Amino acid sequence: MGNEPQTTALARRALRFAREHAVLAIAAVAALATMAVVPPDGQYLGYLDWKTLGCLFCVLAVANAFRYLGAFDRVARVAIKRFSTLRSVALALVVVTGALSMVATNDLALIIMLPLSATVLARAGWGRKIAALFVMEGLAANLCGMIVPFGNPQNLYLYSCYGIGLGEFVQVMAVPFLVATALVLLACALLARTPDSAPAKMEPVPKQPLGRRRLVAYGLLLGLTVLAVLRIVPIGVTVVAVAVVLARTDRRALRAVDYPLLLTFACFFVFAGNMARMPFLSEALTGLMAADGLLVAAGLSQVISNVPAAVLLSHFTSDWPALLAGVNVGGAGTLVGSLASLITLQHFSSVRKVFPALDGLPELRTSHFLVLFTTLNAGFLAVLLLTCRLCGL
After folding, report:
1. Among the four 66, 124, 240, 264, which has the fewest Cβ within 10 Å?
2. R_g of the chain, CA atoms, integer Å
3. Best CA proximity match to 378, nearest among 331, 324, 309, 328
4. Which strand (E) or helix (H) includes residue 312?
5. Is the per-residue pLDDT at 251 higher than 50?
6. Contacts of 73 (CB under 8 A, 6+ apart)
7. Rounded-to-integer distance, Cα 11 and Cα 285, Å
8. Percent of the chain scoring above 70 in pLDDT
9. pLDDT tens figures, 69-97
């Protein structure tokens, strides 16, 4: 009887962890399920792509370092300080979100920008437009990062897995990226229309210095990370350098790394590796990818998210351009299409708690957000799939 309270507390913690890291929990269950079919053996050691995990760790750690230094916040505030109307502020916030996703991954870009965006719109009296802005920032983070290998986690994996050249990567994704960016800007301009054109009172840009020594050090680490992603510098050297420097300058950056995301990748590697060793499934997916890799990749992303779709399907095709394009445009569509979309929903759900004065607005209902999200994402997915098809993918 004495152990019951302790057991109950552990069960509650486990349940809370599973809720907060639902994707990791699902990935772990999926990996364990395949292990029942393919028992652990020596081949398991070859499942993990250490280059991808190392690069992702470095990108997240360095981005956290810049965030804690205040660099990203400074860039965002400087960008929006120049504008006063809703349309110009919304465009600035969306553009900064898209730009950050190219260097800090889509997840971290949203973690940085969504709270700032909600604060700006709430204090400026434009709380009704928070849902629309969040949807547009989510699309910008998911789609603008497709142009570079380190913009999205699935890009890092595919870039390493297939040994893709940087020029080849950009060439494949250039047209979808340009079309996606144009769509984001156009939709943002239309959704930000308002009869009230009064200027907003923006918060001043912080006056405190950023810390030049740390800024230079983090800039060097970022450069080293980029070189590692481009396979110019060994990833092991880069991981050690990032860990040692940040341990001395700001350990918060290391503690804030999304380690559950790294574990999620590890589970997906095990899941995909085992699935590839199931003959019946291997034949089916190989045939489907040969028939239409673009649609299969984009479609599977809608069900299991684009990161696990990329890991799984990479075992069954050599047509990396179709797979790369499919999982990137597949980030649009359903809420499950990209892990970053779940981050957007999570932040939106907390807006009314952070700003109680906005609680009565119908535009801040979750149902309104989901309808707007689904409508826009479905339209974006359709246009981008057509674009990829016209590009011969």
Report:
1. 240
2. 21
3. 331
4. helix 306-313
5. yes
6. 67, 112, 116, 206
7. 38
8. 90
9. 877 667 666 666 676 678 888 888 999 89
